[in-house]
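Schema walkthrough. Field components (list of strings):
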Amino acid sequence: MTYYAIIVAGGTGSRMGAQIPKQFLELNGIPILMHSIKAFYQWPLVPKIILVMHPDFHDHWKKLCDEHKFTTPHTLVPGGKTRFHSVKNGLEHVQSPGVVAVHDAVRPLVNHQFITNLFQNAQLNGNAIPAVKCRDSIRKVENNTSIALNREHYYLVQTPQCFTSEMILKAYEQDFKEEFTDDASVVENMGVKILLTDGDYKNIKITYPEDLLFAEAIIGRL
Ligand SMILES: Nc1ccn([C@@H]2O[C@H](COP(=O)(O)OP(=O)(O)OP(=O)(O)O)[C@@H](O)[C@H]2O)c(=O)n1
Ligand SMILES: C[C@](O)(CO)[C@H](O)COP(=O)(O)O
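Field assembly_structure (string):
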């Protein structure tokens, strides 16, 4: 069985508002993206790593790899217009049979045991999607009115999202829809039941500047 990790790093980081896309910002002395790749490339389950990145940044990335003596093997692939298109480009390098994890480059605090559990779950059950329970009270706002919802019914979804290669390759043959915010929504759209597994509250996504502060605090205690 071949395991694949598609690490999507093709975004611009508009909400972060930094001079460079957030995946290149440093966390604990190395670019965020390197933490994410390193988490995957560990024994005993070592996947083939496919890194998806806008071609304008390929040279920048190669320079960063030299500077940081970063030698983890990976295949560099051009990014697409949206996350969906970036994942689709990555999937061109996947062959069946296999198990595929798709991970946001900007979730650098993911850990290898967590990744291994997801790969194994997906191999057994077809897919495995990490999610955490909503810890706050939750309200729906419509027409200027808010109503309380039962938070027991709501989960926050993370990455890596894992699938058998047959399942995800077929799903990404579908035409793009705006509602596709993650890989689970793409796979679900072809009628597959999505299977949630325990997420990790520390596996945060770096989206806004304050997220970097949270990540620094967490990494200091890992
Ligand atoms: N065309 C795109 C858009 C996003 N991503 C990746 O998808 C992940 C999750 O996306 P998000 O956090 O929204 O990143 P950005 O699109 O960069 O951020 P923003 O929406 O603030 O511009 C990131 O690792 C991002 O690099 C990608 O590979 N290709
Ligand atoms: C894929 C994801 O990280 C799951 O939580 C999320 O959907 C990405 O959303 P974004 O709007 O691209 O940040």
